[in-house]
Queue: 2 jobs
Job 1
Amino acid sequence: MKTKILDVRDLNKHNLEQSIVYDEAEAEAKVNAALRKIDEAAEILAGGGLVAFPTETVYGLGANAMDRTAVVKIFEAKGRPGDNPLIVHIARASNIGELTPVLTPVIIRLIDNFWPGPLTIVLKKKPDVPDVTTGGLDTVAIRMPDDPVALELINKAGCPIAAPSANISGRPSPTRGEHVVTDLEGKVDAILIGSDCRIGIESTVLDMTGDVPTILRPGIITAENIEAVIGGKVAMDPALNQRKDPSGEEGENFTPKAPGMKYTHYAPKAEMTIIEGQIDRVKKEIERLKGLNERLGLKVGVILFEEKEFIEAAHDFFARLRDLDSEGVDLILAGALSEQDGVGFAVMNRMLKSAGYKIAKV
Ligand code: TXA
Ligand code: MG
C-alpha cells in the first residue's frame, strides 16, 4: 500500500511563530495548505481508510469507530490482538451521546475539567458501537484529544474515531511523526505529521462503570487530580503494582482490567533492567553494570532522568527507547523514578513494562 505522508505542522500557530513569516498572506496560505491536507485525510477516514495523526499524548492510528470493516484494518496494520479494545476519540464533548447512554453529574464534571485532554473515560456502550471496536466488551473508552490537528481531523471526518497508539503492537508508543513513518509506512492510507507530542505518554484510563472510579492505566492526569475534581476516592487497578525480581521470574501475576495492560508493551529490541534505590547508589550501580557489560563486549544504553523531573521523563521516555534501539544497543539500564509522585508512577508503569517488570534494588 502506498502511504500518503501529509506534513501539517503549519496548522499549529505555535510552529508558525517559530519559523520566520514575512507577511500575513503567507501565514494564511500555510495554514490553508495544512487544512487541505487534513480535509484529504478526513475523506480517507470517512471512506473507511486508516489515518495516523498526532495527539497531545502519543500519535494515534485512526479509523471510523462505527465501521466494523475499517476498525478491523487497525488490528491488522498494528498486529494487535483482537481482544484489546480501542479508545474512541471525539472532537466535541456533546458527541459523547452517540457512544454511551450514561451521563451522570460526576462524568459531566470530569469532562468539563479534563476535556479536551489526556483523560479517557470508560463507560457503558450503546449497542451501535461495534464489538470489534470495544474488543467484545459492553463498555467503551472515550476521549477528546487536545491537539488542533486531531480535533480538526475528527470534526471533518464527521464520525467518532477509534485510535490506538500508532505503533506496531509491542513497540514503544510513537511521540514524533518519524516514529509513525518507521512503524506504519506501507501499512496505512495516510500519516499526518504534526508536532512532537507535548505529553509523551498515553492518556489516563479511568473506569467509571463500577462503584468506585478506578484508574486502569496511569497517565499525566493523576488520581489526586481526579479526586480533587469529583470530591471522592479514586481506586487503582491492583494489577498496576505488578513487579518481578531481576531474573524476570518471581513475582505475582495479576490480570489487569484494561485488556491491553496485560501485553508486553513498549518493548525495546534491547534487554532492559531498572535499578531502584537512593539516587547516588543507583548512579553508581548503573556505572558499575555499564562498565562490566561493556568489557564483555555489549553496547550499553542508559536512561537516567533528573530527579523529580517527571514531566520531562514522560515527554522523553518513549523517544529515548526508540533512539537507543536505532543506536543498536544490546542492554538498557534505567534509573527508577519515584512512584510517590503520580506522574512518576505513570512513567514507571511504562518503564516496568519495557523491562518486562525486571527491577533490581540497590
Ligand atoms: O493517549 C492515548 O490514550 C492514545 C492516543 C492515541 O489517544 N491512545 C492509546 O490507545 O493509548 P491504546 O489502544 O494504545 O490503549 C488503549 C488502552 C488499552 O490498554 C485498552 O485495553 C484500554 O485502553 N481500553 C480500551 N477500551 C477499554 C474498555 N472498554 N475497558 C477497559 N479498558 C479499555
Ligand atoms: Mg498502545
Job 2
Amino acid sequence: MQVVKYMFQPHGDDRGQLIALEEFKDIPFSVKRVYYMYDTKEGVVRGKHAHKSLQQILICIHGSCKILLDNGFEKKVVPLEKPYEGLYVANDMWREMYDFSPDAVLMCLASDYYDESDYIRDYDEFLKMVHEKQEKG
Ligand code: T46
C-alpha cells in the first residue's frame, strides 16, 4: 500500500509560520467541507469506517495522533505530528484515528459534503467489497 503524505510549504518569517492550501495545487481535489476534532479523550479510537467515494486530507494542526490505514489487504500506521504534514486518505480505505495527545486538533479537508450513505461502518462488509472489486479487476 502506498501512503501519500504531503509536506506543505510553510511561509515562514521572523513572525512565525503560515501554511496556505489551495485546491488542485496543494490538495488533489476540490475541497467541499472542512471539519476538525479536538478534546479527544484518552484511549479513544475514532473513525472505524471507510468511504465509498470520499477523499480526504488529514492534518494534525496541533498535537499528535496516529492513523491506521487499511485497504483490506494491508495495514499501515501513520503518525501525524506536524502541522505541515497532510495524509491523503482515499476512498475504499478503512481508517482509525487513535493515540491523540490531549492537545491534538485533527483537521480534515474533504472532497464532498457530509453524506451518511457514503460510509461503510461494518468491517466485514468493507472486506467483502474491496475483495470483490479486486476479483472483478
Ligand atoms: C472520517 C474521519 C477521519 C457531521 O454532522 N458532519 C460532518 O461533516 C462530520 C464529519 C460528522 N458529523 C457528525 C456525525 C456524527 O454525529 O458528527 C458526529 C461524529 O462523526 P463521526 O462519528 O463520523 O466521526 P469520526 O471521527 O468517527 O469520523 C470522522 C468523519 O466522519 C469521517 O468521514 O473519515 O473523521
